[in-house]
């Protein structure tokens, strides 16, 4: 086997904090074969004991054999590489990467790309708290260009809720370092897909299932289900959080493999359907024409290098460590926060559209009194929209975020008092608020924005 797994994020047994082994990370990412090539990071994350490390070893095989037609190799050879095991105890702890970056000539860009394979600690094992699960998953989303979200049997509502929790936490770290890009690609990988008669295994079936799951509560559904605001906003948020969402449905590995206590991963013990789909799935992630390079936020989306990836990981871990982010203390609180934020965005959209409608692009000045008057009316509409859209608005003691958000909307009016005739920018920083509020009233209404 060419290479071995290297632990780069390790949990300190005493403090329970995750720590970066920077030397180990640099030892891989600063190798001469990486140089200043763009990097592609393919990570597998998701619930514990669901075959993540097992799958990654097929990705290693594909890279080692350079995607040759016979890349799966001798079917009687055991599967090794990232440590995997049967049994019920969680196996992978922290984050590992493969010691050897693989150089692949990416057809789309005509450049060589260094591929990094990443294995992660399973979420929600008996030893892993919500906090740790969120930490690992969010860090994975932030640092990979493709995250495989490994699921069992189906895509359930709680899989979406968990993903929302993890991505919200990751996004708040992006905000903290003034990065506002969405995460890159996410592939829902459903293992042991339960309904192959209804939707056949593979990518096409997966896309249909994903559309159903993400769309069934939205406008696209033929018969929209009774959707709570939270469910709609969660789906909307997930779509907006990723550049690309895909799904692949995998068949079961076969009872022979699953029930044999001596199973060592050799392909000839796996079901032929599983092997067939492994041969289709792996090139979907790693074939030269499909590689997705990690992009650097600091350089306006240019491909990131190994050196930059080291910096990302260090920066994000530092942001997490500083503890300024909202602790994901409970899923309910997190959900309330996301729901409130979604409702806030809707409310601000209501306000922005209404104000845009009265700003004349040819006018170079605005009547302050007119704007203030309209502002008061539109602010009322926005607050009403916020309360209507937010199912948590009533329980403010339970979810203080509601209070914060309402306060922000109120603050808009304070800013408006200072409106001047020309392009104006206000910066509001409330002591009690985590967010900055800008109001920009330029000549062109397209720029009339209120990002919060
Ligand atoms: N049913 C089923 N079992 C699988 C599949 N792939 C692998 N396994 C089995 O799942 C068990 C766990 O595999 P691992 O790769 O160690 O799982 P993991 O998700 O990395 O586990 P943690 O690192 O503990 O989170 C092994 O016994 C594999 O044989 C699959 O697609 N379906
Ligand atoms: Mg594992």
From TrEMBL:
Check the record and name the PROSITE patterns matching this protein.
Answer: G_GB1_RHD3
**Protein's UniProt name:** Atlastin-1-like
**What family does the entry list?**
Belongs to the TRAFAC class dynamin-like GTPase superfamily. GB1/RHD3 GTPase family.
Report which residue ranges the record marks as coiled coil: none
Write the gene name: LOC108673659
Q: Which SUPFAM superfamilies match?
A: Interferon-induced guanylate-binding protein 1 (GBP1), C-terminal domain, P-loop containing nucleoside triphosphate hydrolases
Q: Which GO terms describe its molecular function?
A: GTP binding; GTPase activity
Q: Which domain of life is it from?
A: Eukaryota
Domain (GB1/RHD3-type G): residue spans on this chain: 36-290
- What Pfam families is this protein classified in? GBP
Q: Which UniProt keywords apply?
A: GTP-binding, Hydrolase, Nucleotide-binding
């Amino acid at each position: 086997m060419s290479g071995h797994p290297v632990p780069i994020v390790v949990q300190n047994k005493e403090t329970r904090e995750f720590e970066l082994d920077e030397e180990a990370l640099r030892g891989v990412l600063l190798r001469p074969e990486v140089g200043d090539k763009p990097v592609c990071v393919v990570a597998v994350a998701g619930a514990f004991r669901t075959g993540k490390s097992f799958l990654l070893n097929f990705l290693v095989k594909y890279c080692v054999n350079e995607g040759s037609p016979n890349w799966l190799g001798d079917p009687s050879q055991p599967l090794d590489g990232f440590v995997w095991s049967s049994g019920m105890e969680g196996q992978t702890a922290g984050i590992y990467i493969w010691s050897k970056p693989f150089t692949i000539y990416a057809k789309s860009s005509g450049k060589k790309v260094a591929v990094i394979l990443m294995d992660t600690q399973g979420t929600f094992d008996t030893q892993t708290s919500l906090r740790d699960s969120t930490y690992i998953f969010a860090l994975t989303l932030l640092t990979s260009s493709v995250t495989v979200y490994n699921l069992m049997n189906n895509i359930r509502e709680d899989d979406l809720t968990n993903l929302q929790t993890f991505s919200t936490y990751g996004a708040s770290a992006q905000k903290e370092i003034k990065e506002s890009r969405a995460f890159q690609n996410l592939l829902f990988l459903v293992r042991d897909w339960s309904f192959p008669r209804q939707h056949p295994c593979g990518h096409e079936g997966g896309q249909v299932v994903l559309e159903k799951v993400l769309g069934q509560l939205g406008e696209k559904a033929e018969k929209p289900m009774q959707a709570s605001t939270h469910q709609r906003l969660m789906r909307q948020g997930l779509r907006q959080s990723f550049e690309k969402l895909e799904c692949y449905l995998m068949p079961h590995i076969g009872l022979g493999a699953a029930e044999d206590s001596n199973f060592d991963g050799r392909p000839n013990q796996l079901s032929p359907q599983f092997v067939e789909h492994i041969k289709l799935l792996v090139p979907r992630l790693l074939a030269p024409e499909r590689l997705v390079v990690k992009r650097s936020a600091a350089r306006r989306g240019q491909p990131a290098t190994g050196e930059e990836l080291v910096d990302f990981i260090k920066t994000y871990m530092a942001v997490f460590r500083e503890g300024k982010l909202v602790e994901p203390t409970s899923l309910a609180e997190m959900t309330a926060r996301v729901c409130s934020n979604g409702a806030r965005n809707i409310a601000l959209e209501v306000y922005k559209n209404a104000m845009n409608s009265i700003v004349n692009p040819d006018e170079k000045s605005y009547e302050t009194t007119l704007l203030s008057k309209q502002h008061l009316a539109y602010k009322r509409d926005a607050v009403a929209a916020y309360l209507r859209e937010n199912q948590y608005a009533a329980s403010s003691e339970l979810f203080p975020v509601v209070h914060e958000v309402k306060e922000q909307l109120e603050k808009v009016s304070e800013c408006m008092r200072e409106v001047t005739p020309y392009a104006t920018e206000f910066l509001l920083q409330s002591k009690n608020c985590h967010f900055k509020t800008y109001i920009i009233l330029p000549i062109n209404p397209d720029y009339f924005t209120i990002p919060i």
